[in-house]
C-alpha cells in the first residue's frame, strides 16, 4: 500500500492507495504528486505520517514547518509542551500538544500556541 502526498489547487494533502504511482496518476491527472511512501516499509513510521499531516495543515492555521515539535511553556510557566500537530475538524481547539513530562495529549487553540511559541523564541 502506498501513501501519496499531492497538491490540488495549491492545497497539500495525502491519501493511501493500492494502485501503483502510474495508475494513480492516470486516474487523477489533476493532482500534482509530491512524495510517495510505501506504507509497509519499515522506514515509514508514525513520525512520517505526523510530518505529512503537519505540512498539510500548517498553512491553514498560519504555522511554519519549523513549528513542528517546537517546545513551549504554558502561561504560568509550570508545564512544558511540545506542538505535535493539528485536529483539522475542530473549530476552536485545533492544535494538539503533548506535555513533555507526562506525555499527556492536550487540545489548544492555534492563537494560544502561536503566542506561546513566539514568547518561547523571544526568551531563547
3D structure, described in words:
The chain has 3 helices and 7 strands; from the N terminus they run ββαβαββββα. By secondary structure, it is α+β, with helices and mostly antiparallel strands. It has 2 domains: 2-44; 65-123. The strands form 2 sheets. It has a 4-stranded antiparallel sheet. The chain has a 3-stranded antiparallel sheet with strand order 2-1-3, sandwiched between helices. The longest helix is centred in the middle third of the chain and has 16 residues, at 46-61.
Q: Determine the number of helices (DSSP H or I, runs of at least 4 residues).
A: 3
Radius of gyration: 17 Å
Structural class: alpha+beta
Q: Write the element-wise H/E pattern from the N-terminal end onward.
A: EEHEHEEEEH
What is the straight-line distance between the termini?
43 Å
List the strand order in the largest sheet. Answer: 4-5-6-7
Helicity range of the residues? Answer: 25-40%
Fraction of residues in β-strands: 25-35%
Count the strands? 7
Q: Tell me the number of structural domains.
A: 2
Give the low-confidence spans: none
Task: Please outline what is shown here.
With 124 residues, the protein is α+β, with helices and mostly antiparallel strands. It has three helices and seven strands, in the order E-E-H-E-H-E-E-E-E-H.
Write the layout of secondary structure elements.
Layout: E1 2-8, E2 11-17, H1 21-27, E3 32-38, H2 46-61, E4 71-73, E5 80-86, E6 95-99, E7 105-108, H3 110-123
Antiparallel strand pairs: 1-2, 1-3, 4-5, 5-6, 6-7
Amino acid at each position: 500500500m502506498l501513501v501519496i502526498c499531492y497538491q490540488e489547487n495549491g492545497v497539500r494533502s495525502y491519501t493511501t492507495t493500492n494502485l501503483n504511482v502510474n495508475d494513480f496518476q492516470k486516474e487523477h491527472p489533476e493532482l500534482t504528486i509530491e512524495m510517495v511512501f510505501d506504507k509497509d516499509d519499515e522506514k515509514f513510521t508514525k513520525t512520517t505520517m505526523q510530518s505529512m499531516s503537519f505540512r498539510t495543515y500548517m498553512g491553514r492555521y498560519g504555522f511554519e514547518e519549523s513549528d513542528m515539535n517546537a517546545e513551549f511553556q504554558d502561561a504560568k510557566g509550570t508545564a512544558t509542551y511540545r506542538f505535535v500537530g493539528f485536529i483539522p475538524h475542530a473549530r476552536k481547539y485545533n492544535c494538539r500538544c503533548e506535555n513533555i513530562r507526562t506525555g499527556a495529549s492536550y487540545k489548544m487553540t492555534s492563537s494560544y500556541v502561536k503566542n506561546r511559541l513566539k514568547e518561547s523564541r523571544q526568551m531563547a
